[in-house]
What we know:
3% strand; mainly alpha; 124 residues; two-stranded antiparallel ribbon
Amino acid sequence: MSAITQPLEVLTVSEVAAESGVAPSAVRFYEKHGVINAVRTSGNQRRFDESTACRIQVAKLAQRVGLSVREIAELFDDLPADPGPDEWGAIAGRLVIEAEERVAQLKARLAELGSGAKLCEIGR
């Protein structure tokens, strides 16, 4: 007796939006920019897999770190369809490195601003 498996692409736009805490328009936005992927039904409706809400939540975190949507899509390029703890750990490590680099750059800008130099010279 074989078990019947349910397809991975089972969630609607509304369900993903509710699970991830974003508006349905944000789900479509993330899909348009390659952060998440959907398959289309025969009726041309989007269906998402169960990892989609998590991907959106991680994307929101990455945006708070300062990554653009394009950078987030690139960050997710190598993720498998159903990422496990090791894959998410690698993403977290990359986000930590990116955040630390951005903090260092901001501290350098703060030091320049406090140096007494003319702002137009700092901006070169």
